[in-house]
């Protein structure tokens, strides 16, 4: 599933994320610098914050309560399209999605 990650400095990386992997896992395995993922994906650190491109944000399953709570703790500005990338699982219907990374994660 091709996902485009855009770093705060504008550089783009396209990653073929295996289905079922989280966007955070794939970012870490591919050296995407704008995602830290300190807690390993258990929705407990908010250092995997990303901004989902507007056209995709509404297609994602809604954030669960624990994700919404953790989004209160993001280091960068929280926006309506803010999500935790460890809680977004790659699936075929997300092919082509674009996520932008905030300038700070912690
Ligand atoms: Fe910690 Fe996503 S990796 S909340």
UniProtKB/TrEMBL annotation:
Its cofactor is [2Fe-2S] cluster. This is 2Fe-2S iron-sulfur cluster binding domain-containing protein. GO terms for biological process: P450-containing electron transport chain. Keywords: 2Fe-2S, Iron, Iron-sulfur, Metal-binding. Signal peptide: none annotated. Belongs to the adrenodoxin/putidaredoxin family. The lineage of its organism: Bacteria, Pseudomonadati, Pseudomonadota, Betaproteobacteria, Rhodocyclales. GO terms for cellular component: cytosol. It comes from the Bacteria. InterPro entries: 2Fe-2S_ferredoxin-like_sf, 2Fe-2S_ferredoxin-type, Adrenodoxin-like, Adrenodoxin_Fe-S_BS, Beta-grasp_dom_sf. Residues 1-105 form the 2Fe-2S ferredoxin-type domain. One of its GO terms (molecular function) is metal ion binding.
